[in-house]
Structure formats: C-alpha cells, structure tokens
Amino acid sequence: MKRKALSFLAVISLIWSASQLVTAQSVIPARRPTGSSGYALPLAGHWNTGETPEGFTPKYQMRLLADGRHILPWFQMPSLDASTKNPYWIDYYEPAIRNAARLRLPISFIGTQWEIWLSSNKEYLELPLAENPNVVSPAGQLQHVVSPFGGVSAWHAVGKRWTQTAWIKRLQEIYPDPPYVLFISNNEHPKLEWPQVETDARYLSLHGKGRDDDFKRQVTSEGWIERYRALQEGLRDGLADEPWQRRARFLAYNAVGPSHFARWEGWKEYSLYVPGRIDPWALAWGGGSAPYYVFNWSATTDFTVHSPQIEAMNWVFMHEEARRLNPEFIFELSTWDGHEPEAANDKWKYYQQLGQQFSPERYAGYIKFGLWLMRPPLVREFRAYRASVSDFEKYFAPVLSAVDRIYRNALLREFWQKGQLVPNRAAVHPYQVDVPREYQTVDRWYLLNTSLDPPRPWRLNTALPVFSLALVQGQAPRRKWLVYAHAPLYAQAEVSVTIPDYRPVTIQAPIEGAFFLVDERRGQVTELK
Predict the structure, then answer these.
(1) Which 8-state DSSP code applies to residue 237?
(2) Cβ contacts of residue 515 below 8 Å, gap of 6+?
(3) Can you say whether the dihedral through the CA atoms of 161, 166, 169, 175 is positive or negative?
(4) For residue 428, what pLDDT band results from cuts at 50, 70 and 90?
(5) Is the pTM of this model over 0.85?
(6) One domain, residues 329 and 463
(7) 450 and 407 part of one domain
(8) Are the C-beta atoms of residues 192 and 200 closer than 8 Å to each other?
(9) pLDDT, the chain, mean
(10) Among candidate residues 362, 392, 419, the one where a domain is terminated
(11) Residues 451 and 410 in one domain
C-alpha cells in the first residue's frame, strides 16, 4: 500500500539543516492561518545555478547545509543533450544529489522556458496549421511566438522531451525517493498577448473579430491553462520513476497576479484579469515565483510609493484567491535589487546619481519587509548566470540570515506560523485606478502610519522614510504584535508607528530593519535582538 505523500508545503518544514531535523511539530501547511493551521517555515534558494565554477554551485550549497543554513538545494535543469559520461556534469550533479538523498532533502531544478523548443525546432515549427503551437497569421505567416489557440499535443510532447533526458534518468537512479522535486521555469518565452489575438488565424476562425476585452482575456486565459497543463503533464509523464512523477511540482517565474494592479489606467492591458478572477496562473501552474524586484528598466525604487514593497501588498489578496482556486499552489518569492553591472540602466548607478549607496544592509531591510508581508515557503534570490559567489555572496547573505533567524528565534517562529497580518484600514492603497468591483473592499494596504509619513495624497515618486508592518496574535486585551520597520535611506530614531485598533508606539527604524514585540497587557515595547 502506497503512503500518501505530504503536500510540498508541509514537506519543506521537514528539512535537514546540518545534522538537525526540523521536527514534525513544525509541519504546517503554508496558508493563511485559520484555526490551528499556519505557515510553513521558509527556505532560501537562488536563480544562479553555478553554470560557472565561480557561481552558486551545488558544492557551495552543500557547504551552506553543512554550516546549518536553511536552504532548498537548487540545480540547473539538465539540457536535452548533456552526457552522463561528461566529467563536468558528473562532478556537478552526483556528489550533491547523493548528499541530498542521504539527508532526505527535497530538491529543485531551475530551467529555461521549456516551451522554447516549440518556436525554435523544425519538428514543431513545420506542423500544419491545426497542430502548430505558434502564432500563424491569417496570411499564413509563422511567428516564433506560442499561441493560446494553437495545437495542444506539441506542448505535451516537448514537456516529455525535457524529462526523458539521460541526466534526469540518472538522477532518479541516484535519488529514487525524494520527498518532493520542484521544476521551475523562467517563463520568459514570447507569448501571444491578448490585445493581439486577432493576429492569429486560429482565434479568428473560432471567434471572429470585434470581441470585447473581457472576452479576449477570458479565452486567452483558458487557452494558456490548457496548454501549460499539457506541458506539465508531459514533463511528469517523461519521468521514469513513480515517486518522482507523484512528487514533482512545476512552478513558473511571475506566474502570480499583477503586482501593478490599479497603478495606472492601462494596467489591465498587462494582465489577464476577467470578472471574478485576477489571472489564470493558479489553474495553469503548480506555483509561481513572484518578482519582488527593483527592476532596472522601470522607475521603481525601494524607497518610494512606486516600490516592490507597495506593489507586493496586492499579492496578499491575489494569493488568497490562488489558494482558493488551487489549494496546493506554491507562492515563492524572488528577490533582486536591479543590479546589472554591465548595463547602462543598472539600478545601483541610478542610486549613485541620487547620492545614495545600495548596501547589503539596505538590501536586508527590503528583503525582510517582503518576506514578512507574504511569508512564502521559499525565497529565491536572482543574479545573472555569470555572477560569482565572491562578488555577490554579501548580497545573498541577507536572504540566508532573514530565513535562518526565524528558525533560531522562537518568537519569530511563532509569529511566522500563526500571526495574522494587520491591515491598515485608516488609509487606502495609493493604487486606485479602475479597481474591479469584486476587489474594491478587499484589504490591500498593510503599511502602518508613522510620524514621518509625507502629506497625502502620495504620488508614485513620493519618498517614504519608513516602511513598517505588523502581525498580531491573541484577542484584546491580551494581544501581542510583532512590528517590523526598515528605513531604506537613513536610520530613523524615535519613530511613532500607529498599530491599527491599538495606539501609537515608539520604535527605531534602522536601514537593515528591526523587529519589536508590543505587549498589550503589559504595555511594553521590546526590540528583538
């Protein structure tokens, strides 16, 4: 008789870290707390898979585990033609996978966009119109862009191709019974956008011209749900061993709701919102890695209203919706500071023009705000594939430390698992353009009012001296709050922060962030060291 598999969100609380196993008492599904449920303790990861020896390689990860760091090991997804006899790949995969097997760790594989072959391989490009997965114009012109109205069978075939490789078979032999295996797509292959659906002959044959925007978003969404499910079924079917098939989960970068929700009048053009559903991705994927990024190509910063901290507040209600649609949906948080040293639009260069420095301490404050706002089971940092540990470990260290501290501190652990995020209903989210009726009353604002807040109304470029939020446990008059605050530009002393339905408290807000316990019964405010 087969044992029923634990959900991934429970398994990640059963992680070996060095020689210490997190006990079964901490196995809690990662969901909004109701009754006795709560959040799984988080783990750290990275997008850099060590494609160069100087990067975040499996050997580097094994050293982190030996040092007691709480990570979910990550590996490069084996390429279609990588040889299992190549000494480089043997050294890359085998020692670390054997160690993961010895410790009974879940493992993860970071992949390219698996559907890329649909638009680059003759086998799929030359399929007839009805079966072709790419956009085909009414005049018969083929584009190297996948379509939600194209053939479906090719999606299954290409998925199966990725997991029938020699190395995936070899890894299943080395580690036949992992508790869970994550496969993560970078999800950046060109897709037909809903405003352009009338450029595809299959859409026109099905629906004709002149349909309204909601209809176009609806049929586009349904098309992606069907095709990405077929892709994942192919990936699963290609796995040779039943435990891997049963325990595999497939995630995609940015397969989460639009954080830019209601920021400007054109936000729906860059979303797949339909009445009653913010987007289709919880039905199309097993999880999403949300980009908590200070993008270097946009005006976003970490110290203004147009910031990841403010935009991420939209994800709270979107994640609630995703969990209703798919209770096993995994919400992962990806972090990045916009630093691309070679790029003209490198965010650090922009900050330098403003007379600012983006230090590891500043990054730490920013990371912890997103981490405690969303409480994801996984937080994954991004650096480009050529990034070296020697150059960037000091910026990965704040991610590791933010996670490890939760395991070390019983109070933080308790609030992480069972605290309730406190909405600030004394104010509203500054993004209020064209909010659909069904979302007009949901909580979207969690930034606490402070004595340093600039006068309202705020613009996108309004600088915010302090970012703070709170979690609460218990009932009045015996409530306890965990307050977190960070000041991106300058440490702020003696800041008055108002806790909703309670009173103002005075705290410090350092650049790297700080936690405070507020005890209603005792009337005390204590900084956590």
Answers:
(1) H
(2) 412, 482, 483, 484, 527, 528
(3) negative
(4) very high
(5) yes
(6) no
(7) no
(8) yes
(9) 93
(10) 419
(11) no
